[in-house]
Amino acid sequence: MSQLSALIVEDDPDFRTSVALLVGKQGFDVREASTLADARRALAAASCDLVLLDLSLPDGDGLELLADESEGQPPEFVIMTGNTAAETAIAALRAGALDYLPKPIDRTRLDSILSHVARTRDLKQEVTNLRGELRELGHFGPMVGRSAPMQRVYDLIGRVAATETTVFITGESGTGKELVAETVHQLSARSDGPFIALNCGAMSATLIESELFGHEKGSFTGADKRRSGYFEDAEGGTLFLDEITEMPLELQVKLLRVLETGTITRVGATEAVHVNARVVAASNRDPQEAVAEGALREDLFYRLNVFPVELPRLRERGQDIAVLAQHFLKEVNEREGASKRFSEDAEARLLQIAWPGNVRELKNAVERAAILADSVIGPDVLPDADPARVPAAGDDAMLEIRVGSSIQEAERRLILATLREFDGDKKRAAEVLGISLKTLYNRLNVYEARES
To answer: What is the homologous superfamily of the domain 407-451 according to CATH?
Structure first.
């Protein structure tokens, strides 16, 4: 493998030299720059794998460099700054930085970042190359579906997986939040490390701190030996904190400190222990509502919500319902040595069910139907249809669109015609169109603004 290269962009010459020495010791070919202008000249002269970048430079904000276009694969950026405010870190990570290093530099954390650079760049190229093929097959890692809402989710996962950025996944129960977290892990440089999941709502408040951070022998009744916690168990991998809004508030303070310092303190201990685990959090509640209700600390929410991913409800995913049902039936057939199939009426029924339990409910329904049916699965062994999702008898409304119309105009006419067909019932129109109610409202606001 060819030698990796790094550019250190820092106006303090002593600090720049010290960082250059540390990076050089890890086998990088190192160049230096003291201003944005110098950095741009250096990047134009030769490609670079990694840029360690100070935010406050004599001729501008270091983040400006992240917005510059470059030929080929752009370098990875790691931000260095003495401003330890969470907002600064979040702004840098959302702008596309790989990671964030407060000054003075923690050498252990720097070495960890440097060790992942080559793998991160390979993974980004892998995701780019495979994305089209995976989508055509209706798969993205372990995830299944071809609908537009899921394509947007795949886009987000593809962007964030290879970074070290914290991810916050939201969506109703059963939409697949843990599967998204696993996909992020599998497509990351940490894929060889462990993936550890903790449901914060399924554990008592008295036990969760010990489970998360570990404890020392004798720290409480029954603690007969030292025990590592989830953070230490996830070393070099990913820690998935599900239902984060159910975590006790006093523990949220300690979690925030871990995210900011990269260290934990076991229950009953006095010394901090460095940990290297990426955190992915999730909630089936609206996190902003949880903040307003006092269930989630605002500062923790902003620290976790660096890269939000919102999952659609199953009923918003259109034909993905049929794709998923076939996928789950194939799994049952392979497991049981069977060859059962859906009848045409059953396939139609699948699209007429509301699926309030989302993908989890669909999977359970397919397994139950496969047990009850002989060789062909009919609608009689599936849940009842939702009347709002069943097309009315004789419903043959048509919409003519002139060839040559723009996609935007065709979409506008289809949305407005569907609304008229359902007498202005936005919820039903959104379900028939296969989009979220929020998306429908956004489109209508755009149309209204154009007409005003």
So the answer is: Homeodomain-like (1.10.10.60)
